[in-house]
Structures are given as C-alpha cells and as structure tokens.
C-alpha cells in the first residue's frame, strides 16, 4: 500500500513537471520574433535647395533608411554631390536623386554656364567681322561699332563698344564635351592638341553669344541696331582694358600743314639776238628776244 502511494506521488510529480515544461515551451514559441530590417545610407537635404544652385556640403546630411524604400538613383555619399548643380528644387528632408542633379560630364543648357551677374546676348557675324571663324567658346573678344551720327560733318565714327567679353557659344556650339560623339568621330585629346588638326581651322558661323552685364547689353544692342559691329579676339594671355578714343573719317586723312612755305624761282634772262633787215639800199639791225 505504501509502495503504491509513493508511485502515485512520483507519477503526479512527473506529470506536473511535464505539464510545466510543455507550457514553457509553448509560451516561448508563441512570442513574436523581431526581424531586423536592413538599412542603407542616403543623402538628405537639410534645407530647401533652389533649382540651378551649386550644392554645398553643409546643405546635406546622411541618414539610414530601409533598403527596400531607397530609389536606385539615390545619392549615398555627400562627396559625390559637392559642387554639382540642381536641375529642380530639392525640399528639406527629401532624399536626393541623381536624376535631379546635373551630373559631371552632362551636357548643360546655356543658362547653366552664364556667369553670375551677367546676361547672354547674341550678335550676328560673318567671316569678316567674326575673325574668320576662329572664335571659339571660351575666347575673350572686344566689340567694335561703326556708326554715322545724324547731322555729322565728320562722316562715320568707329569706337570700342565694350571690351573683354567671354564667348559663351558660337552658333549652337557651347563647347561642351560629348564623349560619345568624340568616340564616334575618332577624336582624342592628343588630336585636339595637335596644331595641324582640324581644331585649328576656322568654322564660319552666323552668330556669337557673349556674356555681358545688363549695361553692356544695352550698348551692344543699340550699336547693332544703329550701326555695324565687328569683333576682335584677345590672345590667350590676359590683356588689360585699353582706353581708346573714337575715330572718324577725318582721322584717316593726314592733316595738311598749316604754314605755307614760299620758294623763290629765278627767271632766266632773255637771250638777245640781232637780225639784219635790208630795205631798198638801206640796211639796219633789229634786236630780237
């Protein structure tokens, strides 16, 4: 009897332990598992960045965002954006996509290369007034004007309208590099530096676009509307601005001396010749000069 009681107690203890073990196991298995979501760095705009602005590093910051939400074009490093230009406005907290930035080597529009404080103005040229077609984007030129003022007694005038203007474009060529085109044409850097290559040949164009201040734009416009323009090109070494006076038609003609110099001319003495004249029986001599 005592043995049965001990066996019963042991059975109860074992059953209780098994129940507790099963309970703990089920409890642990019922807990939700926490899954770590992978994150990647993305460059964020700290403040609003206007369109067509040069990006500065202090305008950017890096944050970790879920990898599944990242656009493939998203920038991941601040250094790859420094100094680039925005195509459109970037909002504060917005991940910066590279398709909204002007990438290095990307062909730019004219508005992107106009210097700060300047405007772009285009003047008509031909082979003569366009320096034989040798003007290229990046060159420095002066603009000369020829005009005949109303009621002028000295004819036409020529003067330097503005000096030291940067050439932004020649016709539709802004000088931007196009690697694919260069590859197709077989052009290389060594060929560009070869003085015998086609780069040294002039290309006749019909227009040249210049970078001018608003005041210079007024002068060039008026001179082109009222007279004729001609461009002169600077050498590669920077030149100083020259102070030049206008010239007119009388400047081209040498001035006659104001003092008249009189010279004496000796008159030769007449040569005296005697001629004998006979009349009847009389003869006489007459002096003939």
Describe the overall structure.
The protein has 289 residues and is of the alpha+beta class. The chain has two domains: 39-102, Type Iii Antifreeze Protein Isoform Hplc 12 (Alpha-Beta Complex); 110-252, no CATH class. 21% of the residues lie in helices and 26% in strands. It has six helices and twelve strands. The strands form four sheets. Strands 5, 6, 7, 8, 9 and 10 form a six-stranded antiparallel β-sheet that branches. Mean pLDDT is 78; it is low at 177-198.
Major sheet summary line: 6 strands, antiparallel
Number of domains: 2
Percentage beta strand: 25-35%
Number of strands: 12
Segments where pLDDT lies below 50 for 5+ residues? 177-198
Indicate the mean pLDDT: 78
Radius of gyration: 47 Å
The outline comes out as rod-shaped
Q: What is the helix content?
A: 10-25%
Q: What's the SSE pattern?
A: HEEEEHEEEHHEHEEHEE
- What's the end-to-end separation, in Å? 199 Å
Supply database-style keywords.
rod-shaped, 2 domains, 289 residues, 12 strands, 6-stranded antiparallel β-sheet, Type Iii Antifreeze Protein Isoform Hplc 12, alpha+beta, two-stranded antiparallel sheet, 26% strand
How would the blueprint of this fold be written?
Layout (H helix, E strand, L loop, with lengths): L1 H28 L9 E7 L14 E7 L18 E2 L14 E2 L7 H4 L5 E6 L15 E8 L9 E14 L8 H7 L3 H4 L14 E6 L1 H13 L1 E6 L13 E2 H4 L20 E7 L2 E7 L1
Antiparallel strand pairs: 1-2, 3-4, 5-8, 6-7, 6-9, 7-8, 7-10, 11-12
